[in-house]
Amino acid sequence: MGLTETHLQRAWVVHGEAAFEYVVLEFVERLEHLLEREQYWIDAYPGRVLYNSSPTAGSNLGFKMPEAVVARRRGTKLSESHRVAFGFARKGVHNTPEHNAKISAGKMGHSVSEETRAKIAEVNTGRPVPKETRDKIRASLAGRPTHDISTQARGFHGRFQRV
Fold first, then answer.
1. What is the pLDDT of residue 163?
2. DSSP assignment letter at 30
3. Residue 161 backbone dihedrals phi, psi, to 5 degrees
4. Are 128 and 161 spatial neighbours (Cβ–Cβ below 8 Å)?
5. Are the C-beta atoms of residues 42 and 55 closer than 8 Å to each other?
6. Could you tell me what percentage of the chain is helix, strand and coil, using 3-state DSSP and rounding each to the nearest 5?
7. pLDDT at position 114, please?
8. Are 141 and 151 spatial neighbours (Cβ–Cβ below 8 Å)?
9. Residues near 78 by Cβ (< 8 Å), separated by ≥ 6?
10. CA distance 64 to 86
11. Model pTM score
């Protein structure tokens, strides 16, 4: 039996298989009615110990993470393998123009602190920039004076290194 719910799994270990009974409460013909029926059965047993961690069907709404878990997760960083896995999960996925517009609107008026700017500059200093990227930047700046101060005002400052 594959158990993913910790509360249920612990009860299974403590009380044993004999203490549990698997019963089909209802067959749901249409998938779109599944959450509605699940919520019905959650609500049908108020105050009873159920093994649903959330009082809302199909959602984490109303579920409070135990403080011990919150404290353990606070300040932890993802491992390199997790970061790589998250990167692959989004690879090739493109946002819709509407979604990009919402992201852009959300960032309007957001300014970055000098401390953050310094950290970004430190990370990017000496970082190799691919030739293709340098060519794109060069093409976008074509026709502008070499020492145009306005490029610094728009954030085009930093160092480039040949690859």
1. 44
2. S
3. -130, 140
4. yes
5. yes
6. 50, 0, 50
7. 92
8. yes
9. 86
10. 25
11. 0.36
